[in-house]
Each structure stands twice: as C-alpha cells, then as structure tokens.
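User: Can you help me understand a structure? I only have the sequence.
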Amino acid sequence: MVVPIFRGDKHVASLIGGQLLPSPPGRQGLRKFLWDNQDLRLDPDQVREAYFRAPYLPSGAVDALLNLLSFFAAHAGRDSFAQGDASVETSRDPVARARDYIARHFAEPLSLADVASRVGLSPWYLSRCFRRTTGTSFVQCVHETRIAGAKQLLSATSRTVAAIAYDCGFNSVSQFNRTFRALESCSPGAYRRRSRQDD
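Assistant: Let's start by predicting it. Here is the structure, written out as tokens:
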C-alpha cells in the first residue's frame, strides 16, 4: 500500500504501508501465485511459508486504512504548502491526475502500471480508485478518451480510418473498429458520414 504526498503538483514523499493479501490465504490462492510466477523459479516451500504468514485485511478494512493514510498525506502536503490553494486538492486526486495524463498521452501506449507510477500509486489501488470514482475501469477510460479524439479527427479531417486508428493509440484497425462500435453503436465510416451531413 502506497499513498503519495503532494506539495502542489509535485510528488514529494509517500506513505508506505507494506503488502497485504486481498483475500485470506488458502491453497487455491497459493496455487495461483505459484502459477502466475512460475517463470521466476521460486522455491515452492519458501513461497508457501511466506504466503501463509502474509498479513490479510478484508477489502473494507483496506479501504478504511487507505482513507486514513490519504487523510495524513493530505495534511502533510497541506502543511508544507500555502494555505487556501484550491488547486492543491484537485491535484491530489489520483483519478483526476490519471485522467489528465491519459488525455495528454492517449496517442501513446498506455498501461495501468505506467499511469499508476505517474500518479504515485500501485496499479491495484489506482484501478480500485477508478472503479469507485468513475464507475468504469481504467481501460474503459482510455478507450473513451481515444474514441473522443478519433471522433474529432473523423469529423474535421479526411485522414483514413486506419491512420486515425493508429494516431489515437490503437494497435490495429480491427481493435479500433470494435471499440468504436461498442461505444458509438456505429462504424467510424458511418460516424464520419453522419457528422458531415450534420454540418
């Protein structure tokens, strides 16, 4: 668990609470861990011992603990910064910072791990923050941002659909078409024709 401390927009420190299991340790979880990390060639006996000694907190307790750490982080940052600056609170919101980063870099490859490191959180916690704050996932936010950019290009330029797909960060035209249809209920070509008829 990591909670960043910001002085304005600058990350100056972090409160680190260590690692916790998200569910009670059990044989199934151990098997999954060993399977997911088999390429590391870990000693199964040592992993088993460490796994069953690892601390566990239910998700409600984890949220409460993170809220408490966030409270301390907010006050620590506020004490080291000028009082009464409303932008400080906004800059401290990890989802707002993540969405701002996505908006500025949507044409580039974006992973949850990359964006989480930019805002000073673990990928797991940023993912939970996205769900709790927006009701959608990190991936959905990236897709929506990229499709919004694509819609602007489809309406305002004569670039090909393929060029727009790559310009907006998609790895393939088929992925772009599939995502566009899912969000807009039409193909990129149909959206372009309709937007030009509306003009």
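Now, to help you interpret it: The longest strand covers residues 10-16. The beta strands are 2-7, 10-16. Let me know which part you'd like to focus on.
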